[in-house]
Automatic annotation (TrEMBL):
Organism: Ferrimonas lipolytica
Protein known as: DmsE family decaheme c-type cytochrome
Keyword tRNA-binding attributed: no
Residue ranges annotated for the Cytochrome c-type protein NrfB-like domain, each copy included: 83-156
Annotated coiled-coil segments of the chain: none
Amino acid sequence: MSSTNQLLRSCVFIAISSCIGMNAYANEVETQLLTKFEAGQYSSKGADSCLMCHKKDDTVTAIFSGVHGDTGRSDGPMAQLQCESCHGPQGKHKGKNEPMIQFGADGNVSAELQDSVCLSCHQDSERMAWHDSLHTQEEISCVSCHSVHTAADPILKRGNEVASCTECHTEQKLDMHKRSSHPLAQGAMVCSDCHAPHGSLSDASLKQTTVNESCYDCHAEKRGPFLWEHEAVIDDCSNCHNPHGAVNDNMLKRKAPQLCQNCHQPDGHQFNVEQPEGVFTSGQSCMNCHSKVHGSNHPSGNYLRK
Ligand code: HEC
Ligand code: HEC
Ligand code: HEC
Ligand code: HEC
Ligand code: HEC
Ligand code: HEC
Ligand code: HEC
Ligand code: HEC
Ligand code: HEC
Ligand code: HEC
């Protein structure tokens, strides 16, 4: 065995054994696995030994059409411990007598242990915030989103992503089908245009540092600077918009004037402004006069009026 292989073997071992070791609630399977890891009970024939029994299962052999089955990749599983890079040492496994690592929500080991297998190769800048993400805390594991026994992992195709995410995120699914929304349902945008699927240091795992920076990516004209600014806009676009969709035009959380009255006096003014008849009952109301709600660069655009 080459020294890279030994390095990898010990990396996988350290990742997994420290994961089991730290977990006071390690189940019986995990404890059994740890013994096999420590004894280094890997098979000498690699995948061939597994395929003696598992080659009739098409879902298993499909891995050879994908990147993880590529024997030519020195950094991939097949150039290393092969099937056992992910499923752990075979030991005396011939079926049910001794377990292998099983993945998925119904897997036989914790989500943390499953993920430590994947992270033994994929711990890089993309997944730096993984451990602190809400997904991790909720035991959503790598394989909740990814499949490896396939020629092509479905979620990596842009056209499939939204459907994968909204299998769990039903609230966002409802929002994106409302009267006004980002073109998520049409496939012209994906969740990961705004969110980092592996977590980030920002609220709501946004790719950018703030909500507003996320929006400026595509709506640069709203960044300003403006001569006459609206504090509510500088503070947070989601004061007024639901980024996933809403029943009101322009993805507004509420209709004006209620939207504005969330923060302003009931009639918007501390003093008397002469108002046209019935202005507060019409849909546009406040914006009839304050038409530049995001900010104005007009010399006489004070109070966001032009
Ligand atoms: C890159 C990690 C990885 C490698 C390498 C790997 N597997 Fe898997 N295996 C998984 C994951 C993850 C699943 C869960 C299903 C999925 O995500 O595709 C799985 C599922 C399975 C299952 C259960 C399939 C089912 O029908 O539910 C078997 C059996 C299996 N693998 C055997 C093998 C064999 C044999 C090899 C070597 C030829 C192998 N695996 C290589 C990660 C891996
Ligand atoms: C002597 C036959 C035999 C060999 C060799 C063998 N397995 Fe298995 N394996 C089985 C049987 C039988 C099952 C139980 C299948 C079931 O319960 O439906 C099983 C179950 C599994 C499972 C759990 C999947 C499930 O659906 O329960 C995984 C993962 C797995 N084997 C991986 C491997 C890997 C990786 C190797 C090689 C290192 C290997 N097996 C070698 C016979 C074998
Ligand atoms: C032994 C190392 C190793 C392990 C373990 C491993 N991977 Fe990979 N994985 C790779 C390599 C190498 C690539 C190809 C990277 C590239 O093309 O830059 C890859 C690519 C991927 C990709 C991109 C696939 C594509 O088609 O471009 C995904 C997603 C992925 N791995 C998920 C996983 C998951 C989930 C697990 C755990 C079940 C896992 N990997 C375990 C080595 C590994
Ligand atoms: C919530 C769903 C989700 C989870 C959980 C998830 N991923 Fe991903 N992953 C994605 C999506 C979507 C992409 C493609 C878009 C992107 O790269 O931002 C991706 C891309 C990747 C890629 C290829 C591009 C890259 O980032 O290098 C790899 C490798 C990968 N994921 C590995 C992992 C590993 C390892 C885990 C667990 C630690 C994991 N993923 C957990 C959704 C997920
Ligand atoms: C245009 C950018 C954008 C897109 C596209 C987007 N989101 Fe969001 N998402 C946000 C912002 C911004 C927040 C923070 C909301 C807030 O502060 O009110 C958020 C919050 C969330 C939250 C946290 C729940 C909450 O209300 O705080 C979840 C879950 C979520 N998004 C899932 C998704 C899913 C799933 C998709 C794809 C269907 C998606 N998002 C697409 C921008 C986006
Ligand atoms: C297997 C179910 C599942 C899948 C698939 C899934 N999520 Fe989640 N996600 C959750 C759970 C559970 C939470 C915890 C909070 C909650 O219930 O909203 C969460 C939380 C989030 C949050 C809030 C994070 C935070 O830090 O506040 C965002 C954003 C999010 N998911 C985006 C996505 C995106 C984007 C995808 C697809 C790439 C995705 N999710 C796929 C289950 C899932
Ligand atoms: C990846 C690019 C992208 C990002 C990031 C983005 N948008 Fe959009 N936005 C679009 C596209 C595309 C449209 C649809 C334009 C059209 O239909 O003409 C749109 C439309 C809108 C609309 C008008 C909707 C309607 O019903 O006409 C609003 C409001 C909006 N975005 C707000 C936001 C907010 C707030 C954010 C930040 C949370 C944001 N956008 C981030 C691309 C983006
Ligand atoms: C104080 C409430 C409020 C805040 C905060 C706000 N908007 Fe708006 N937005 C509106 C209203 C009201 C409309 C309806 C059209 C109009 O009157 O300009 C709108 C319309 C839009 C539109 C579609 C029409 C257009 O002007 O292109 C986009 C895109 C948009 N907003 C993006 C943003 C972004 C990006 C932010 C954060 C930088 C933001 N909005 C913050 C109230 C707000
Ligand atoms: C999230 C709270 C919030 C919402 C919602 C909001 N505003 Fe404001 N608005 C502010 C704050 C804060 C200021 C600055 C302090 C002040 O003058 O009260 C401001 C200032 C203003 C000003 C005075 C600007 C100037 O040049 O002095 C106008 C006009 C205005 N808002 C109109 C609106 C309209 C119209 C809406 C509804 C579309 C709205 N606001 C919604 C918080 C909000
Ligand atoms: C008929 C036109 C008109 C309508 C409709 C209107 N405003 Fe005004 N508003 C003005 C004018 C004019 C000023 C500036 C007063 C001045 O010149 O001193 C002003 C000033 C303001 C200010 C800043 C001064 C202050 O008192 O703090 C806010 C905030 C404001 N309006 C909010 C609103 C809101 C919210 C609505 C809807 C509920 C609204 N306005 C509807 C004309 C209007």
